[in-house]
Amino acid sequence: MNKRVTIRDILNTDEFRDFVVLAGDSALDKEVHSITIMDSPNPFPWSVGGEIVLSSGYIFKKHESEFEELIRKMSDAGIVALFIKLKRYFDYIPQNIIDLGNEIGFVIVSVPVEMSFVDVINPTLSKIINFQTEIIRKSEEILSDFTSLVMNEGDTLTIIKVISEILGEEICYYDMKLNEMYHCKSSCYKDRDFENININQLLVEKESYRVSMNNKIFGYIVFLGRKKGDIYRDEFNALAHANTALILDTQKKLSSMQIENRHKNEFVRDIITNNIRSKMEIEKRAQSFGWTFKETFRTLIVDIDNFKDEYTKMGNTDEKRDINNDLDDIRDNILSTAVRVVKSYFVDSVYVNLSDTAVFLIQNNREDKIDEILEEMSEEIRNTIGNKFDFTVSIGIGESQDDIINVYKSYKEAQMAIKIGRTIYNSNFSLHYKDLGVYRILYSIYQNEDVLSFCKSSIGKVLDYDGQYNTELFSSLQKIADCDWNLKIAAEELYIHYNTMKYRYKKIAEILDKDLNKTEVRTDISLALKIYKMSE
């Protein structure tokens, strides 16, 4: 596209072949918006920038001592050039003015004395108006092209190729809603491949245009061959039409995906809640989505920590409703991040989003390494989300099931891992059902009055002593039990001297009035400590 009308374009007009550039050669590519006549020494209040000033030279002759200052003021006001007649009031332009024009990039052009102002103004305005007319014509053509694209269901890549051809630029488009990158000369990158392209770095280094509506960002058009700078005025029409077409295309995709995802979600929800009549039903419904269930299965739950608490803080004002909408977007982005990580490890996994939770059905044929892989993946999910958002997530993992029809059992196990993990770790954890141990039993009884009474009788005196004397005996007791009653290891982990730990051990025994070396006493205390963790 012809980006703009420049001083050079004006000087290339046939009628101006006898014009001579006296100064400012380096500034000939400055944009021209209009041309006007200078008949006073103070034209600056009406200057809006981009003007060529046409002068007979009289004003400069009359105020010759201010000639240099006038040139500086004209440049500061955004005036791009002085077209001045010589041989009438000036035989030549003083050398200091020529030097100044070259220094500050201000163009000074000699106009033949016999040319009238009209002979200069009309061709200049014609060129500017013709350019603006071409912009309007091109805009209508672009609108027609994009309307046709949308009507004929042109895809995103086609839209990008069209805008690339219109602008004459190599561009790419990053779709934030679908996390996809499109390039005008290649196919789309997604999921793991997308990590090879640093979109944030591109946005810093390259010129870009934000595709948005109602302050919601859908993506960015990036000019790959252009460093950071201004987008040309005439490009905005094309980009505005591309903005509309890309948003419509994205909304169409999202609408289609929402319908399909609703059916997928219903199917996965039926599987994990055991709302299935037969294995054949699973196979038929899976086929409709192109899914094949052949391997062993287990359930993994990703739950956003304390997310519902944020909703309870909100009211019904417009501002708070906007915050609610932002929270919805954050939730969707967090769960989408979890999906991308899981899919990068288990491409055949399926999932359902349940409010602020994502439930994954993971099938694999690597059962010998599955625990190691799940641990690595869970850590990546938590680290990625924790670094990117102001929220953390907790992860519960159920046991493996040989048949998809029984995967609801794994779901219940993953749920229990989340619930028990919340009582022990509160947030930002990953926990396997198989690692719950005695907590599986304790979870069903820990709020029983007899159980709480047992807990108090076993360790309550140490808690009371800490409260009364501001000591740290209870935390020491917890660490000793965690270290399998090895005082040396417990001391090292608490960064205290071994003799200090021996003293605390003896003091705890005195407070409880029990022999802590007896196996049955240690068993009671260890059990009481687990119950305490769940009930505190």
Automatic annotation (TrEMBL):
Pfam families in UniProt: GGDEF_2 (PF17853), HTH_30 (PF13556), PucR (PF07905)
Domain (GGDEF): residue spans on this chain: 295-435
Superkingdom as given in the UniProt entry: Bacteria
Family statement: Belongs to the CdaR family.
Name of this protein: GGDEF domain-containing protein
